[in-house]
Amino acid sequence: MITGKNQIGYKQSAEGAKKYKTANPVTNSDNPTVFYEATQLEIDEACSLAAHAFSTYSKLPGVKRASFLNAIADEIEALGSDLITMYMQESGLPEGRAQGERGRMLGQLRMFAELVKNDTWRLPLLQDEGGNLKKTYIPLGPVVVFGASNFPLAFSTAGGDTASALAAGCPVIVKSHPMHAGTGEMVATAITKAAQKTAMPEGVFSNLNSSGKEVGEQLVKHKGIAAVGFTGSHHAGRALYNLAAARETPIPVFAEMGSINPVVITQQAISKRAGQIAETYTASITQGVGQFCTNPGLIITVKSEETTHFIEILAKHLEATPGGCMLHTRIQEGYEKSKNEIKAQESVSLKVVGSSSKPNHTTAALAVVDGTSFIANKTLHKEVFGPFSMVVLAEDKNELLNIINSLEGQLTATIIAEDSETIALQDITLALQSKVGRIIYNGVPTGVAVVDGMTHGGPYPASTDSRFTAVGNHSIMRWVRPFSFQDFPTALLPDYLK
Amino acid sequence: MITGKNQIGYKQSAEGAKKYKTANPVTNSDNPTVFYEATQLEIDEACSLAAHAFSTYSKLPGVKRASFLNAIADEIEALGSDLITMYMQESGLPEGRAQGERGRMLGQLRMFAELVKNDTWRLPLLQDEGGNLKKTYIPLGPVVVFGASNFPLAFSTAGGDTASALAAGCPVIVKSHPMHAGTGEMVATAITKAAQKTAMPEGVFSNLNSSGKEVGEQLVKHKGIAAVGFTGSHHAGRALYNLAAARETPIPVFAEMGSINPVVITQQAISKRAGQIAETYTASITQGVGQFCTNPGLIITVKSEETTHFIEILAKHLEATPGGCMLHTRIQEGYEKSKNEIKAQESVSLKVVGSSSKPNHTTAALAVVDGTSFIANKTLHKEVFGPFSMVVLAEDKNELLNIINSLEGQLTATIIAEDSETIALQDITLALQSKVGRIIYNGVPTGVAVVDGMTHGGPYPASTDSRFTAVGNHSIMRWVRPFSFQDFPTALLPDYLK
């Protein structure tokens, strides 16, 4: 069923000499399919088809794009358990997670179909009634999507970036993630079938294999590309942002690059319900073996006996939680490396070390550090991608605010507090607000609901442009620009403006 | 009345050794005031005050920011004819233009006051009713504004960028334009008075003098700055964009960098009303001595006897139009240089050469070139800032489309046609749409109405980010980011979300 070939418009292609395989982290062995990395010529062909498709696809009425998106969801659903099996083989993630993520992906595709089916989203909120200017939003052009290692479905080939870009009227070229190229190919094939069934122009979608950085770099630099969507590491996201900014014609890059998601716990909350908080946060820290960009990597609280007690309970819970298989050997190695880097810093004590009994497996780890050391040492502000969290102990509320103010931009922040003390939390709320895109009260940051109220993004380095969200209907605004018709005859206006 | 000093928060400061004067282009002599360029310390102080002001200014209810904006308009109005005199001395522009531009500036300030007074603009169009997530827009932080040489009021110190940023909740630091530093100081003083009268935090506004590039560069690189608004040349805009993208924390730059604003005229229109079109376009090309970013610099039409006749009429009209004084010696020299560069290109004939009888004065010029040469020669695609236009002669409609497709991004495009032929214009409309932010039918591109339906921006290089507009209420979206409250207690929500 899987060919290892690139999907270039309606054609499968394998012209390159560079080959690679995906791995099953659970069995610690390669999967059978050989994937062919895209060549420069194949990249050019995908871009040229996308540019050509754009001229017709961008002008389709919303109802046609909606049928395409719904057809994609239907075709992916029709892959049935084969897709789930492939997903598990390439990610080591359990079946429940695979099914949940598939549901999220299908839901997103159908949500965007619903959004665009009648084109009203293209009319801005502010509009002059009866004036001679009519304003609308039009698509930017072909978009390159870089999928995430940790979401082979919901943030990859037919994930939120692809769904929102296709909904906007932009053709999409996916730079396939090397760790789940098979899952990617299956989804790409479903998208292609849907495009053919709904008579979309060839080139509205392509899927290019890549084992390293080159294919992605060539795509971002390509003249035919108008925008980039990325979910992944800060290192890779920033490199692509730099390439895009250095182009003769710079293009927007929306890169969601992760976060350490600070959680502030008040003394009252610790006194009243240390056990419950420890339990809830153990689940959040270890969920998906910690491989979420909203993983709570930082717990900030004031030093006290109760806090010491809370750390002990949290440590016990984390130690008692069974480990899990990480997505890939490279990710597990990266996790160990980052953890060891933190461990090596002065003043940091590792309360729970975490162990790795089987290949690619790990259990949770917990570090503790004082506020002064944390503020002074930027290494401690880096994301450790995995089931890791660090408690930062402030001397007092003042230092707690200083700790917050020392943080970089984040996707989320959370406040754990008693309802009786909310007024006293005004300054903490405001300090956190200046650093993040979403703030949670008495909850956990993991779990990013696909709703209009969601902001999934945040000040740099959480994302490259905090003015947009990667999740929910609003994420379509990344791929469109305003456009005004002045004194235009009705016959020349798009139908929805007539 | 004018001191030549920098306005740093509520203080006037002149610590620097670098001094300069503005010039009166009409008398071709320096104006009396000596201006003190801001030093690195003064820049730091303005940024530090702005960061401090942000923490309170960003949280004010809209109604307070509205009174500040209205007070700015009132204080500027109270400057009366002194401001008009200074404007004319520093720009050489006539009194009617000065008054018109002041009206536009005051109107914009009051428009943004009206927009933000009740905070409803901060609630996104798409919102989940009754969900546990509440989404709003919050300001980015201190914004640096670079004013335009050609709009000392409406696109400068208290122009659209400043008004929209202050409305959004962002403190503003203006990098004063060296050509109209006196006008800038008068407006800055009015803003400062308004800030004091309405009890705004010190640092909500500063105005820094600069004679060259250094002050602007230091501001864009400054850690305390969150975004940049710019109106000016492609060269300067791109340089600032590059600096902002290279920062450790990149920041958004909205630079509006001008355009050649193609105008397509059909053969039917030329046959029926060559005289009227020539007259209308003579007025548009020479308005403000051509010193508008929406000046029609390119007229595209098909070769024919009628076209030859139209060019003759247009040339006669342009020749008969009295010249005018340009804004500055440097602008007049730049105009002559660009015009001569075009003239030196093969296949270009200068139908109207334009003359310069008095210092800083010029009359209009008109060039003609064939489509093939235009497509092949990128020098001919550059903006000539002044009363200049070039007719590009296509062999047929197919070449006319190729000419459009060869263009870079533009602010506007215009179609001049007969109503009977609109259907046949579909392809031309779509081709132009892919290149511009606004398209005009049977009108002129000059004149940018301050209304919600306006898009003033466009694909690069017309602007650095086509997803925003620089004019109208929507321009506030450049300075804000989405933010979500999840499960938040009412007491901790901003009033407008309660």
Automatic annotation (TrEMBL), chains A, B:
This is Aldehyde dehydrogenase. It comes from the Bacteria. It comes from Dokdonia donghaensis DSW-1. Residues 15-458 form the Aldehyde dehydrogenase domain. Keywords: Oxidoreductase. The keyword Oxidoreductase applies. InterPro entries: Ald_DH/histidinol_DH (IPR016161), Ald_DH_C (IPR016163), Ald_DH_N (IPR016162), Aldehyde_DH_dom (IPR015590), Aldehyde_DH_Superfamily (IPR050740), ALDH_KGSADH (IPR044151). GO terms for molecular function: oxidoreductase activity, acting on the aldehyde or oxo group of donors, NAD or NADP as acceptor.
